[in-house]
């Protein structure tokens, strides 16, 4: 059975953010991830994750001005200084929380635009240098255009070609099964082919983005395939519980029992 991390931006939202660490631990998780921790002090988050005994395995770099529509800065030609600053902030939080994986959001932009593509490459190279010094892996994640219209990185082939082109050992693919199924399906072949460049996996049902096992895909078959393929990394539960978080956790027992 894969090693699961509760996504605290989507799960346990019955509690305030800082209380979600203990709630996840009480529900049997020893690892958590979340999207943006930046409205809280890193020291306060570290105190809560340590007290709860959960490892913080992944979060995102600051995404720019979310309210104004920004969804990451890496591919924005005019936002290089802000991107560099976001790398510093993300790495400071990672050091305080003991986190070894950071997701770099690309931003809204046209993948066919040469200046945008060039900005993305320069940004990722810069971030990879800084992250390598800190022993941190950077993740890039294709995101479907229904959830995030106009997102620059919206294709798995595009992401893998970029990882190859950059050739940086600390840049890997965040394979979100939910986005993959919406973007192109063929999930099992994708996992098998891309395993060497996968640094983190996330899961949610499609199309509802709810608990695994509640959508169009046989999520249990996919999770079994991850085991069979030898994936030993984390699987982030990046789903919105259909009801209460605890009531929705029965999928773990169903997975364990194979029913
Ligand atoms: O939307 C997703 O999928 C993510 O992994 C987020 O971190 C991006 O906001
Ligand atoms: Mg994701």
What features would you describe in this structure?
This protein is of the alpha/beta class and 259 residues long. The chain has one domain: Alpha-Beta Barrel (TIM Barrel). 39% of the residues lie in helices and 14% in strands. It contains nine helices and eight strands. The protein has helices at residues 20-26, 42-52, 80-97, 114-133, 156-166, 177-183, 187-194, 219-229, 250-257; strands at residues 3-7, 31-33, 55-60, 101-103, 137-140, 171-176, 198-203, 234-237. The chain has an eight-stranded parallel barrel with strand order 1-2-3-4-5-6-7-8, surrounded by five helices. Helix 2 packs parallel to helix 3 (80-97) and helix 3 (80-97) packs parallel to helix 4 (114-133). The chain starts with a strand and ends with a helix. The structure holds the ligand O=C(O)C(=O)[C@@H](O)CO and magnesium ion. Residues 141, 176, 202, 238 line the site of magnesium ion.
Core attributes:
259 residues; alpha/beta; TIM Barrel; 9 helices; binds ligand LASSHYVV; HyI-like; Sugar_Epim/Isomerase; isomerase
């Amino acid at each position: 059975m894969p090693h699961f991390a509760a996504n605290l931006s989507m799960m346990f939202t019955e509690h305030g953010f800082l209380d979600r660490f203990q709630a996840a631990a009480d529900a049997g998780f020893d690892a958590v991830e979340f999207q943006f921790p930046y409205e809280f002090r890193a020291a306060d988050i570290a105190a809560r994750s340590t007290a709860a005994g959960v490892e913080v395995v992944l979060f995102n770099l600051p995404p720019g001005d979310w309210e104004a529509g920004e969804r990451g800065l890496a591919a924005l030609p005019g936002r290089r200084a802000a991107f560099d600053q976001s790398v510093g902030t993300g790495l400071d939080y990672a050091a305080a929380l003991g986190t070894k994986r950071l997701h770099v959001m690309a931003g809204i932009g046209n993948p066919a635009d040469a200046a945008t593509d060039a900005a993305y490459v320069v940004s990722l190279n810069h971030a990879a240098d800084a992250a390598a010094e800190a022993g941190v892996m950077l993740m890039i994640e294709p995101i479907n255009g229904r959830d995030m219209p106009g997102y620059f990185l919206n294709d798995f082939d595009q992401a893998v070609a970029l990882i190859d082109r950059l050739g940086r050992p600390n840049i890997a693919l965040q394979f979100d099964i939910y986005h993959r199924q919406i973007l192109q399906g063929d999930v099992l072949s994708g996992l098998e082919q891309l395993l060497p460049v996968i640094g983190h996996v996330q899961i949610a049902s499609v199309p509802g983005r709810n608990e695994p096992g509640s959508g169009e895909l046989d999520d249990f078959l996919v999770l079994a395939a991850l085991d069979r393929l030898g994936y030993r990394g984390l699987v982030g539960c990046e789903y919105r519980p259909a009801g209460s978080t605890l009531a929705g956790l029965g999928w773990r027992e169903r997975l364990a029992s194979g029913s």
